[in-house]
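TA notes, week 10

Several of you asked for a full example with nothing omitted. So below is the full record: structure tokens for the whole chain, then the designed sequence directly under it. When grading your own attempts, check the secondary structure regions first.
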């Protein structure tokens, strides 16, 4: 009895497995072209090759859709990550210091703004241009970590540097 895939990841794995099977059949017929012109096997070989190509095309479209859905789901999960969790994930052993600085700078708000300064770590326009920025807590933490590392793993670029200690 065939088991039904329940998650997007399981469905993708099954579709990839099926695609490998059909591309294998297509490669077989391309390697054994004589079957396509054989008087004994031509009709069946041509029909089987056409079917394998049709299924491979359908599966390729389905796989692209599943990958898009998985990417969207993962983006939503990343966006839903709390600022504290994102900061700790990105900063590792500097987690507590980074959270303290971000709490002081923005109240842990990704949408905080003070003039040109934006986000969790209130990075200015030049810093955002150099180190990046984004709408999610993770993207902002990654940019701040780049800045932090470039500054010698030192909180001196932030006005709330005192919060780290």
């Amino acid at each position: 009895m065939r088991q039904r895939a329940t998650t997007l990841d399981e469905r993708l794995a099954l579709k990839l497995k099926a695609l490998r099977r059909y591309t294998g059949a297509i490669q077989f017929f391309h390697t054994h072209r004589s079957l396509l012109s054989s008087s004994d096997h031509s009709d069946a070989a041509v029909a089987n090759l056409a079917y394998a190509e049709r299924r491979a095309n359908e599966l390729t479209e389905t796989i692209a859709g599943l990958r898009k859905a998985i990417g969207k789901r993962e983006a939503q999960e990343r966006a839903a990550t709390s600022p504290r969790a994102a900061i700790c994930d990105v900063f590792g052993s500097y987690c507590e210091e980074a959270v303290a600085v971000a709490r002081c700078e923005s109240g842990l708000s990704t949408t905080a703004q003070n003039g040109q300064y934006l986000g969790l770590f209130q990075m200015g326009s030049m810093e955002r241009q150099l180190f990046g920025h984004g709408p999610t807590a993770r993207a902002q933490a990654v940019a701040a970590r780049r800045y932090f590392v470039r500054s010698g793993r030192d909180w001196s670029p932030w006005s709330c540097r005192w919060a780290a200690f």
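The chain has two domains: 8-80, 83-164. Use that as a sanity check on your answer.
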